[in-house]
């Protein structure tokens, strides 16, 4: 490993508590990506589906469809089943525009079986000593179980704050920030830009401001 190749680290939507990953995996209701969105992830051409769309009077709903050739992912690439699953694992109800949920569903990316099976295999400690920020939504599901402040210990301010133990050489350089009213999909909530400002201020305070 090469802990010194980065000037600073910002870990978003993260903690070292992997006990809630099962909620994420079950809630996602994973399905084969090439079957879920065959035009994007499979190799189905629009012309091949034209008759079926016409049969059910759905042609108008996909008028103007001009997606590039499908990515033709093989079986083993998975994605969440639908917008309901997407909302459950990534969004906090009441704090996002419904259009953002649709955009997220239309632009979602697949995950491999191997990635899902190794989510909890992150090394417990790291010798990195530079600036570290953990930036996680207050209601993150996969890494906080839906409540990042529910630590069960008054001396521990948040679940993501315990990541500090994984960076013993960066104790004076560590910050854990809980973004309010936000789920795991940080970029899709109303206050996303405020979150970007928090991250940029942290980097600026460490002399890492973008030029």
The number of distinct β-strands equals 6
Q: Please give the order of strands in the largest beta sheet.
A: 1-5-6
Distance between the termini: 28 Å
Compressed to H and E, one letter per element, the order equals EHEHHHEHHEHEHEH
State which percent range the strand residues make up. Answer: 5-15%
- Helix amount, in percent? 25-40%
Class inferred from helices and paired strands:
alpha/beta
Q: Shape, please?
A: elongated
The mean pLDDT is 90
Number of helices: 9
Q: Which stretches of 5+ consecutive residues score pLDDT under 50?
A: none
Q: How large, in whole angstroms, is the Cα Rg? A: 20 Å
Main sheet overview: 3 strands, parallel
Features:
9 helices; alpha/beta; 211 residues; single chain; 6 strands; three-stranded parallel β-sheet
Can you describe this structure?
Helix content is 32%, strand content 11%. It is an alpha/beta fold and 211 residues long. A 3-stranded parallel sheet has the order 1-5-6, covered by helices on one side. A 3-stranded antiparallel sheet has the order 2-3-4. The protein starts with 8 loop residues before the first strand and ends in a 6-residue tail after the last helix. The model has no long low-confidence stretch (mean pLDDT 90).
Describe the secondary-structure layout.
Layout: E1 9-12, H1 21-28, E2 31-32, H2 33-36, H3 38-41, H4 46-55, E3 77-79, H5 83-90, H6 98-107, E4 111-112, H7 113-117, E5 132-137, H8 141-144, E6 174-179, H9 192-205
Parallel strand pairs: 1-5, 5-6
Antiparallel strand pairs: 2-3, 3-4
Helix pairs in contact: 1-5
């Amino acid at each position: 490993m090469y802990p010194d190749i980065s000037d600073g680290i910002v870990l978003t939507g993260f903690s070292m508590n992997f006990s809630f990953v099962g909620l994420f995996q079950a809630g996602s209701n994973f399905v084969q990506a090439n079957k879920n969105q065959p035009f994007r992830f499979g190799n189905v051409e629009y012309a091949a589906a034209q008759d079926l769309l016409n049969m059910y009077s759905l042609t108008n709903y996909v008028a103007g469809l001009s997606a590039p050739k499908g990515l033709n992912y093989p079986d083993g690439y998975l994605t969440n089943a639908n917008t309901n699953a997407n909302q459950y694992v990534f969004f906090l109800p009441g704090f996002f525009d419904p259009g953002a949920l649709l955009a997220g569903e239309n632009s979602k990316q697949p995950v491999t079986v191997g990635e899902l099976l190794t989510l909890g295999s992150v090394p417990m400690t790291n010798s990195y000593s530079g600036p570290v920020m953990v930036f996680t939504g207050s209601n993150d599901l996969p890494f906080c179980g839906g409540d990042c402040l529910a630590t069960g210990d008054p001396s521990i301010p948040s679940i993501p704050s315990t990541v500090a133990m994984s960076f013993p050489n960066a104790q004076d350089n560590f910050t854990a920030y809980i973004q309010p009213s936000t789920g795991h999909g940080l970029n899709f909530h109303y206050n996303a830009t405020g979150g970007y400002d928090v991250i940029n201020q942290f980097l600026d305070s460490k002399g890492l401001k973008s030029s």
